[in-house]
Amino acid sequence: MSLQVEKLEHNMAKLTIEVAAEEVEKALQAAYLKQRGKINIPGFRKGKVPRQMIEKMYGAEIFYDEAANKRISEAYGKAYDECELDIVSQPSIDIVQLEKGKDFIFTAEDKYSTRVTQKEVDEEIEKERERNARTVEVTDRAVEDKDIVTLDFEGFVDGVAFEGGKGTDYPLTIGSGSFIPGFEEQLIGAEIDKEVEVKVTFPEEYQAAELAGKDAVFKCTVHAIKAKELPEADDEFASEVSECETMEAYRAEVKQKIKDRKESEGKSKKEDQAVEQAIENAEMDIPQPMIDLQVRQMADDFARRIQQQGLTVEQYFQFTGLTQEKMMEEFEPQAVKRIKTRLVLEAIVKAENIEVSDERLDEEIQKMADAYQMEFDKLKEYMGEAEAAQMKEDIAVQEAVT
Predict the structure, then answer these.
(1) Cα–Cα distance between 264 and 138 in angstroms, integer?
(2) Distances, alpha carbon 85 to alpha carbons 6, 76, 81, 309, 311, in Å
(3) DSSP assigned state of 63
(4) Is the pLDDT of residue 401 over 70?
(5) Which ranges in 86-160 belong to alpha helices (H)?
(6) Per residue in 29-63, pLDDT tens?
(7) In the Cβ-directed half-sphere of 93, how many Cα atoms lie within 13 Å?
C-alpha cells in the first residue's frame, strides 16, 4: 500500500491510497468464494461455477463491490495509522481506479483536528532550548555523542598515508554525519590528547577512485571537547525567549503558535499545489546558461553554509565521497524548478498587476532591520534604488503565491 496525504482548507485532508494489484486479486478471489454459492448457471452444480464463467456471464465487475469494500476497510485503517493526523470525522470515499489486473486507487477525505498535544509543546520548547544553548569546554570526561571536538587526524591505507587524509585542529560535531560512515561513532570515548585508531571502509562509489572500497585506519587525537549546555526551562528562560514572564504563559504561547501553524498548513499546501500545477502547464524553453547560473548560485550558498560549520568544501567532499561535478548535477533539477517557479510567479504578477507600495516595502525593511539588529533608517539609507526595486519585485512574487 502507498499513501499520499494532501492537506486542504478548513482542516480537511485528502488521503490518496493505492493498493497493489495482487492484493486486489486476492480480494476478488475472496469475494468469489463468498458469493459463488448464491449464483446458479445451468450445467453447473450450485457453488461449483468457475469464477471465469461467472465473470464472463455477468461481467468482471460482479465481485468489485465486495472486493473494494474489503480492501477499503483494510487499507484505510493502515492509512489512518500512517498519516499522523488526528482525524475526527468519517471519511468520504471516492474510487479512482478499480480494474482487474491494475492497482486499486481510492481517496478518502477527512476532517482532522488542529488540537495541540502536550508532547508537541514539549518538543517545540526543547528546540528553543537547543537554539539558546551555550557551548562550554569539557576537560573532565571523554568524548560523548553530540560533542564538538577539535582533533588532528591522519589516514592510512595498507599502512601508507594517502593524500588529503590529514587534518589539524579540525572541528567536528559527533553525530553530524560529516565524515565517512562509522568514523564519528568511533571517537566516542576518546580522551583528550590520547591517540585513538578509527577503522573505516571507504564507500564503493567514493569520489577518489584510488580509495573507493578500501579499508583505512585514521590515527586521531582529540585536543579539545566542547558540549552544549541547555538553559533550564524556567521563568527566566521564558522571559529571555519571549515576552512572557512565566513558563506557564510561555507554554500557552507556544501552544497557540503551533495551532496557528497547523491551521495555515492547509492553505499553504493548496497555494503550493496551484503553483506546481501552473509550472506543469507552462511551456518554457530555459537557456542552459540561465540554469548553469542558478546551479552556481546554489553551490555558492551551499559552500557558505558548510564554511559556517567550520568546514571547507574540499574537506566536505573528502569525507562524504561527493564530487563537485556530482553536486552540480544533483542541483540542476532543483535549479530548473526554481527558475520555472520564478518565471511563472513573475507572469502572475504581471497578469494580476500586483504592485508593492512604499509602505509595504518599509515593512519588509523593518523586518530585516530587526533581524540584523540595525536601525531602520540606516538600513534603508544603505539600500540603493536598484536594491529597493529588487525587493519590491521579490515581495510581489511572494504575494503572487497567495
Answers:
(1) 43
(2) 11, 13, 8, 35, 39
(3) G
(4) no
(5) 118-131
(6) 998 998 888 888 888 888 888 998 888 888 878 88
(7) 16
- Rounded to whole angstroms, how far apart are CA atoms 136 and 117? 33
- For residues 188 and 251, is the Cβ–Cβ distance under 8 A? no
Taking only Cα atoms into account, the Rg of the chain, rounded to an integer number of angstroms, comes to 30
The candidate with the shortest Cα–Cα distance to 168, out of 208, 225, 227, 222, is 222
b/e per residue, 80-115, with b = 16+ CB within 10 A?
beebebebeeebeeeeeebeeeebbbbbbebbbebe
Q: Residue 41 in contact with residue 57, Cβ under 8 Å?
A: yes
In this prediction, residue 315 carries a pLDDT of 76
- The torsion angles phi and psi of 46, rounded to 5 degrees, stand at -60, 130
Cα gap 320→207, rounded to integer Å: 8
* H or E stretch at 269: helix 247-281
Instruction: Sheet containing 12-19: give its strands across.
Output: 2-7, 12-19, 104-111, 92-97
Give me the pLDDT at residue 11, please.
75
At position 287, the amino acid (one-letter code) is P
The cell numbers describing 119, all together, are 508532547
Contact indicator for 400, 279 with CB cutoff of 8 Å: no
What is the C-alpha separation between 92 and 190, in angstroms, rounded? 58
H-type helices in 83-163, by residue range?
118-131
What pTM does this model have? 0.46
Distance CA 60, CA 64 (A): 8
Helix (H) or strand (E) holding 154: strand 148-157
Rounded CA-CA distance 288/269 in Å is: 30
d(CA 182, CA 288): 39
**How high is the pLDDT of residue 374?**
82
CA nearest neighbour of 108 among 231, 251, 8, 252 = 8
